[in-house]
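Example for tutorial group B:
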């Protein structure tokens, strides 16, 4: 009986050592064998890059969407301000046109003789009509300068909106939705 137990023990040791040797050679043990590199987890969503990067990518893309929304609102506000100033300038121009024509004809007549100058002086200088005309001209110039500033801001915001919108479209639609290129999306988000 002792011999039988000994033979069973030897066979058990042999099969156990063969089994362990096979496990070590195939790399199916809990630890990695010497020289083996860890196998990255299989990607389910991304074709390139890691699925683990998706939460960060989505957070940055949603931040871009919020920034786009803010730029759109700023652009719309600047456009409304531009339209308002343009309408005010047109109203001032319509009010100034007959006054300028009246002043021009009165000034031309005033230069012909001293009596016509006295009429010009009584109608334009003494009544303050010329000062009001000059105030309206100054107001128009000021509105026009303000219009130019707001228009420049609008064009700057429009360019920023279009650039960010193009980047957002490229990352969200082209790289993520169509190509599932997470590595490209990360590179595009970290770049300028």
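The residue assignment follows.
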């Amino acid at each position: 009986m002792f011999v039988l137990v000994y033979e069973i023990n030897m066979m058990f040791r042999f099969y156990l050592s063969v089994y362990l040797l096979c496990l070590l050679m195939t790399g199916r043990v809990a630890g990695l064998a010497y020289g083996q590199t860890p196998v990255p987890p299989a990607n389910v969503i991304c074709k390139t890059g890691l699925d683990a990067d998706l939460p960060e990518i989505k957070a940055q893309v949603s931040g871009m969407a919020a920034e786009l929304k803010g730029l759109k609102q700023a652009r719309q506000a600047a456009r409304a301000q531009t339209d308002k100033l343009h309408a005010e300038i047109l109203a001032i121009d319509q009010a100034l046109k007959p006054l300028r024509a009246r002043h021009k004809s009165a000034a031309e007549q005033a230069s012909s003789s001293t009596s016509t100058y006295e009429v010009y002086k009584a109608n334009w200088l003494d009544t303050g009509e010329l000062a009001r005309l000059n105030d309206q001209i100054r107001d128009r110039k000021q509105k026009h300068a303000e219009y130019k500033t707001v228009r420049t801001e609008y064009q700057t915001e429009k360019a920023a909106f279009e650039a960010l919108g193009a980047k957002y479209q490229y990352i969200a639609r082209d790289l993520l939705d169509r190509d599932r290129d997470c590595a490209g999306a990360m590179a595009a988000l970290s770049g300028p």
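The two ends are 81 Å apart (CA to CA). Compare this with the pattern of hydrophobic and polar residues in the output above.
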